[in-house]
Amino acid sequence: GVLCAAAALIWLGNRNDAVTNAESLKAGILTAHQVKAAFETVSGRLVDRPIEEGMTVEAGAKLLAIDGTDIGLSIRQTEALIHQADAQIAAEEEGIRLALAEANTEEQTLWRQIEASEAARKSASAEWLRAEADWKRAQRLLPQGAMAQSDFDALKAAAASAREGLSSAERAVDAACVGARAEDRQKLSRTGSAEGMRLDAVVNARQAAENRRISLESLKAGREASAAALEQLKVNQSRLTLKAPEKAKVLEVLYEKGELVSPNAPAVLLESERLYFDIYVAENKVKGFQEGAKVTCWSPALNQDVRGTVLSVTAAPDFADLKMVRERGQADLTLFKVRINVEPAEGLLTGMTLEVKL
């Protein structure tokens, strides 16, 4: 009976130690991050494969390359379209500039012509006033016998001619001042200056030049579209060469030279030098592991500590839960998977066990 009791105590003591260790110490297997390198959005025939499985490549090293003939042709064609658009834009801008300059010149010319017409109108008006006065005087003198009939007829004809000349001059001014405002006409009559007068012909010429800006904006928009297309083509051209994102070991190359490569599909499988391991922690302990927190890990193989950083904390799959296990003190607890990134250390290899104290 005494022996049985002692054995039971020893068994319970060992069991309590195992449970205690399980609750206070978590271990995981050191694993390397794997990277699946792929050609982003581009496809084509593989023309270069400088790597083989098992090689270690540096960051930025060429892994694979796709034939870029088609993209090269598209780039040259698009560059030609841009050059053509630049020439058309320059020609249209110069055309608008010249049209506006011509409108300004025409405006100055018309103002001077209007001023000349107004001066002629004023001269014709003065001539009419003189001829009209002579005609009226002749009308008084002829009945008195104080003027010969021939002189009377000559003055009558001169008055009619002067009146017609004034009417013609007035029509010339009206024709030259089409579209002019009343205040501009009054200023012209008062001062003889047409400076600043608004004229329909000039307004229409300027409007026609401004309307050409719509065509200019269309050309510029087309040029911008071609420039954007060229930029995208150059981006795609740069993507024809697949480069290593970091120093890593080549695990598998999924294409051979001459094969057609699909866009966004894994082409090379790399094993990174970045290391991690996972542990499963009960919900009542997980608060000690926050993303970004520094963690001290123990390597039994190296008999030393290594430094780590919590990368993520996520709910573990149902199969990893402790529900229904009913271990003492852990009944119905949900587990969380804690992933810890490990800093490189001499002698540290994938497959080794690392431990973390809770």
Question: Summary?
Answer:
The protein is an alpha+beta fold and 358 residues long. It has helices at 2-24, 69-141, 149-176, 182-191, 200-238; strands at 25-29, 31-38, 44-48, 56-57, 62-66, 241-243, 248-253, 260-261, 266-282, 294-299, 304-315, 335-342, 353-357. The protein is built from five helices and 13 strands.
Descriptive labels:
single chain; 358 residues; alpha+beta; 7-stranded antiparallel sheet; 4-stranded antiparallel sheet; 13 strands; 48% helix; rod-shaped
Can you describe what's shown?
This protein is α+β, with helices and mostly antiparallel strands and 358 residues long. Helices cover 48% and strands 23% of the residues. The chain has helices at 2-24, 69-141, 149-176, 182-191, 200-238; strands at residues 25-29, 31-38, 44-48, 56-57, 62-66, 241-243, 248-253, 260-261, 266-282, 294-299, 304-315, 335-342, 353-357. The strands form three sheets. Strands 2, 4, 7, 9, 10, 11 and 12 form a seven-stranded antiparallel beta sheet that branches. Strand 10 and strand 11 form a beta hairpin. Helix 2 runs antiparallel to helix 3. The radius of gyration is 50 Å and the shape is rod-shaped. It starts with a helix and ends with a strand. Residues 2-16 and 322-329 have low confidence and may be disordered.
